Amino acid sequence: MIKVEDLYKSYGETVAVDGISFTAEPGRIFGLLGPNGAGKTTSIDCISGVHKPTSGRILVGDLDIVRNARQAKAQMGVVPQEVALYEEVSARENLHFWGGACGLRGADLKSRAGEVLELTGLIDRADDAVKKFSGGMKRRLNFGCGIMHRPPVLLLDEPSVGIDPQSRVRLLDLVREQASAGVTVLYTTHYMEEAESLCDELAIIDHGTILADGSLDELRSLVGEKDMVKLTGTFDPAEVSRALGDNLPEIEIMESDEAALLVSMSDAAGNLAALLGVLQENGVVLRETSVRRPSLETLFIKMTGKELRE
Amino acid sequence: MSNLRYTLVAIRKDIGRFLKDPVGLLLLICMPAMVGTLVNLAFGGSDDTPTARLMIADEDDSLLSGLLIGAFGQGEMAELINTESVTRAEGEREVYKGRATALLVVPEGFGDSFLNGEPDTLSLLTNPAQTILPGIIKETLEIMTTGGGLLREFLGPQIDLINSESGSVSDSFSDQTISSMAVDINNLMEGASTWLFPPAIKFENISADTTSATDAEASMVTDEEKTLLWYFFPSLLTLLLIFAGMMLSSDIWKERQAGTIRRGLSVPFPVRWMILGKLLAGTLVVLTVLLLAAAFGRFVLRLPHQSWLAGALFLSLTGATLISGMTALQVLFKTERGASIVVMFFVMVMMFGGGSFFPLEAMPDFMQKVAMYLPNGWALIHYKAVIEGNSAPGDLLVPVIILISIFILSWTFCSWQIARRWGSGSA
Ligand SMILES: Nc1ncnc2c1ncn2[C@@H]1O[C@H](COP(=O)(O)OP(=O)(O)OP(=O)(O)O)[C@@H](O)[C@H]1O
Ligand SMILES: [Mg+2]
């Protein structure tokens, strides 16, 4: 279990994490979903003991990461966002070192390394120097190094970035296996689909704060039944706001500027014509229109006013 | 107990890495061997050879050309070859008229292209009437340029880093500061060169009649046995230590860039044990190389050194402390570039000021005093006292305690810095 209470972390002037709290339960995958710079890595760093939190409390199991760093760290496997491996030596030697660094030794270390090589599909290349690996293979080994000591808590920082679809499926399966074996998994990502398909529970994070959290169903219910319509073209925001307020008051404007308009409305398929009509009457030149069904993405846009992708 | 085991795991890891990438290690061994051969060939001539008249046209007039030319003017080499500084035209005239043995032209820009790793040519115009003397000059030049090339190879990464224009944005120093520092260092070296390099330095002490009082004590080394190598060999060993310190301490940057230090901060063991493993792995490398080199000196070159084994162990400990100290220096900086400039500066100061490049005996008196306060010079003095039989290995106890203390302090300091500051993403 990971329990984060009011975690706050700043680097000088920059506030990277601004008071977040959540609990990740054993046997479940907890997702931390957010765009670049949201504070995902900083949160992971504080939990894994790489950084000291500026304030707040972090419990791993019932161990405080600041006060019982050593025991708490022994419970955790960490897979950093940047691949962190010794390139000159082989995959097996990397596993031996990081396994050793987490307290494994002797025959257990050797057999576990074999197991992990098998799991990550690297057994054929086990004794090749890592510098000869492809990016995806390095990612898989990076993951493997984190699970060597069979940790009951696993922190994964965007582990699937930059790997091909097959490897990704395999990696996500590995993560699911860990969870079903009872491991507490904390998984950060900026891929919406990944979060939706993998996580049991999710927190949406941006600018260091959690905007919404809960199970997938709870979050979906927040989204409501409304569709999102995005229009691009040439707008006069004040005029648009007045025209829609007068004619179609049930439509909610999410975002509006000279070049784009984002609105939320029920049954977009049926009501789109009315919307376009009102806009055209008011001199708007339209270029493109897109409709989005309710999803986590629309929730995200609703909460942050921006799209998730960079 | 388990911290110790983790340290062992870390030692094994780094030794494994070093063995996978042995070029650096080979250079480490080759470098002093090369310099040794160079010096021996250059200065080891006998007395009754005819004298050559070498004209030198230094059109480059840089630190490097000065160094190159200076080598001809040293010690016994000076007795063999008289050098004269001339313009290219004057020199050509002298050679064609048969009055000079050869003309060496160092072209403008030689020093720069050497530092940039670009090939450049030295031209040597020889007197067709003479055969042996031009040959000697040619030979000497070849050895020096090969030695220089090797030096370039060795310091390459540092030089490139300093030369490179592409500073990262997160530099702790601005590019301007860095370049002005580089200029400062260069100026300093240029200034120092007037008294560091010939003619200030000569091997004038190396002759049978200038034996120091201490040497006269019941030492089994007789003056006849004191060849040039006898004087220079210990210096070469300290040269090796300096290179080892520079090379092995900069490995911490490789780990930082690979993200492995950061990962090391998330494992249960405190990062200082990982760092200790790293320092001790470096120590093992130095120990191995030094034992080989010292045994080579004792049994192959037959240098009449006493307590050579104790001496080699003492120097290895000095090497360990240099690695540790230089690692502490490295982590003070935010970028590898900043660190490498300062480390390189210390390396230069130690090399030329601490008796590693020129034997202490060949340095002016005040320089010998300065050398005592540089790590390599200090170690060299203690080491020589032991191998010359002037003090017993037991007398090294206090120096050993000092070294161990500095090792521990540096190790603690750099671990603390790393734990505090190196958690953030790679530089
Ligand atoms: N060492 C540091 N010094 C100063 N600011 C930092 C440092 N590390 C991170 N930050 C800032 O903290 C904020 C959060 O960064 P963080 O790396 O946690 O984001 P992230 O969610 O992991 O982003 P990404 O998806 O790009 O990995 C950013 O504004 C970043 O600029
Ligand atoms: Mg990140």
What's the level 1 CATH class of the largest domain in chain A? Alpha Beta
Rg of chain A computed from alpha carbons, rounded to a whole number of angstroms: 23 Å
Q: What do the pLDDT scores of chain A average to?
A: 91
Query: Sheet bearing the most strands of chain B, described?
Result: 4 strands, mixed
Strand residue content of chain B = under 5%
Strand order of the largest sheet of chain A: 6-7-8-3-9-10
Structural class of chain A: alpha/beta
The coarse overall form of chain A would be elongated
Strand-residue proportion of chain A: 25-35%
Distance between the termini of chain A: 32 Å
CATH topology of the largest domain in chain A: Rossmann fold
Beta-strand segment tally of chain A: 14
Description:
The complex is a heterodimer of chains A (310) and B (427). Chain A has 310 residues and is an alpha/beta fold. Chain A folds into two domains: 2-215, 3-Layer(aba) Sandwich (Rossmann fold), CATH 3.40.50.300; 225-293, ACT-like. Chain A, domain 2 (Alpha-Beta Plaits). In chain A, 38% of the residues lie in helices and 29% in strands. Chain A is built from eleven helices and 14 strands. In chain A, helix 6 (165-180) links the parallel strand 7 and strand 8 (184-189). The model of chain A has no long low-confidence stretch (mean pLDDT 91). Chain B is mainly α and 427 residues long. Chain B folds into two domains: 3-44 and 227-421, no CATH class; 52-168, abc type-2 transporter like domain (abc type-2 transporter like fold). Helices cover 65% and strands 5% of the residues of chain B. Chain B contains 18 helices and four strands. Chain B has helices at residues 2-20, 23-43, 63-70, 75-80, 88-96, 110-115, 132-163, 175-196, 213-216, 228-249, 251-258, 260-264, 271-300, 308-330, 336-353, 365-371, 375-387, 397-421; strands spanning 52-58, 81-85, 102-106, 123-126. In chain B, strands 2-1-3-4 form a four-stranded mixed β-sheet, sandwiched between helices. The longest helix of chain B is centred in the middle third of the chain and has 32 residues, at 132-163. Chain B is globular and about 80 Å long. Mean pLDDT of chain B is 76; it is low at 45-49, 165-173 and 192-225. Chain A binds chain B through residues 11, 41, 45, 48-51, 70-71, 73-74, 76, 78, 80, 82-89, 93, 97-98, 100-103, 105, 129, 145, and chain B through 2, 5-6, 9-10, 13, 16-17, 20-21, 258-260, 262-270, 274, 423-426. The structure holds adenosine-5'-triphosphate and magnesium ion (MG).
